[in-house]
Amino acid sequence: MSNTREAVAIVAALLREHGMRATLAALEKEAGSLMQEGDGTISDAADLALKLRALKLGSKVAPAHSDLGESDPLMAPYGGKLAVVLEQTVSSAHPANVLCVAFCGASREFLASGGADKLIALTSATSGEVEHRLSDHTAPVLAVAPQPDGGTLLASAAMDGRVLLHDVNTHELVGEWTAHKKYALCASWRDRETFATCSSDGTVAAFRAGGEAGSSFVKAFDLPLSREHGVT
Question: What is the separation, in whole angstroms, between the first and last Cα of the chain?
Fold first, then answer.
């Protein structure tokens, strides 16, 4: 238990050091008594910060075993910079389970999330506010995939086997297909003009752009890969 409390306290010291107040408050709320000193095994915040800095310096990093040797960037000591941590949790996007999420939009300015409520919520990546909900699916949404290279399209797949394509700027439904006989499980883009989906019916469906400047998409073909076990 003392090791658990010390680990929690080290994380708290790290959050405090980097000014992540919202995340720290959430940790304190969840950890409860683990944040409290009881038997003298937990050091104060300053001592914990020192321990944390010692860990970040990586003074006992094992030597690299790749051909790059010590120049391997993956083996370099921790530089003391944290990855960006979002300071807020968007809890209003869906009333039910959230099943998938991806950044989308030309500048990845939206966070698209698909839910068991059959909706795709478009949340501002800046403000954290839900700006729109796409309601064209008729079953829980299992996958969302943004068009790459600055594209504004969003492919989505749902439990009814349907695959939809929306423009996240105009919210227009620009394509829809009953692509699979069972759950459509995932979606992925190859480039701006080609994407594919897979299903528990054992097939992969591919879609490619058609029309002027790729303004519309058509289903190109099916690949029956595994009728018995599905494709995930």
Answer: 39
User: In whole angstroms, what is the distance from residue 221 CA to residue 225 CA?
Assistant: 12
What DSSP character marks residue 113? Answer: E
Q: List Cβ neighbours of 138 (8 Å cut-off, separation of 6 or more).
A: 118, 158, 160, 162
pLDDT at 40: 41
Residues ≥6 apart with Cβ < 8 Å to 40: none
CB 64 within 8 A of CB 72: yes
CB 82 within 8 A of CB 56: no
Pairing of strands 194-199, 203-210: antiparallel
Alpha carbons 197 and 113: distance in angstroms, whole number:
17
- Least confident stretch, 11-15, 154-158, 189-193, 210-214: 210-214
> For residue range 74-90, what is the model confidence (pLDDT) as tens digits?
445 555 554 555 555 66
CA count, 13 A, side-chain hemisphere, 68:
8
Q: In the structure, what pLDDT confidence band is assigned to residue 18 with cuts at 50, 70 and 90?
A: low
Contact 190, 196 (CB under 8 A): yes
Residues in the chain: 232
Using an 8 Å Cβ cutoff, are 120 and 101 in contact?
no
Q: 3-state class of 90 per DSSP?
A: coil
Burial class (CB in 10 A: 0-12, 13-18, 19+), 215: exposed
